[in-house]
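Subject line: Sequence and fold of a protein, written as structure tokens
Enclosed: The protein record, placed directly beneath this head.
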Amino acid sequence: MASKAFLIMIVVATIAAPPAFATDYVVGDRSGWTLGVNYTAWAEGKEFYVGDRLIFKYAKGVHNVYKVNGTAFQQCAVPSPSEALTSGSDVITLATPGRKWYICGVGEHCASGMKLVITVDSSIAPASAPAPAPTSGGPLMHNKKPMNFWSNWKLKIHF
């Protein structure tokens, strides 16, 4: 009996839970990860959530990406070369909330402004609202009667 109740709870939770959608952010948008971009301005107004992904696009061999702490960020202290991301299309999934700091470790790139700090919200990314159904201004109609989505939907569970 307990397993039936558990199964019903799972089905209800699956149906009732709104889907969450992660967002992919190309750092620097069309400019990518390069010199001459104001990454503070780029991040301004963006809301980052757990599950979102940062994509660092740059010419391989010209730049790199390091995830650092706040002190290393301020000082542009480059960690060990083994910690560098160097593919030219590095993807970082934001797995935990809090402040995140990234720098380029090539030459004086960090000191020239090639650094990014963001804050990841502790909640999961909000679900996107579904596009409204085209209507003539009234409720959804079926046979000229208002149609309730849930009235025609039935859950049958057989044990």
In short: Strands lie at 24-26, 48-50, 53-57, 66-68, 89-93, 98-103, 115-124, 141-142, 145-146. Residues 10-19, 129-159 have pLDDT under 50 and may be disordered.
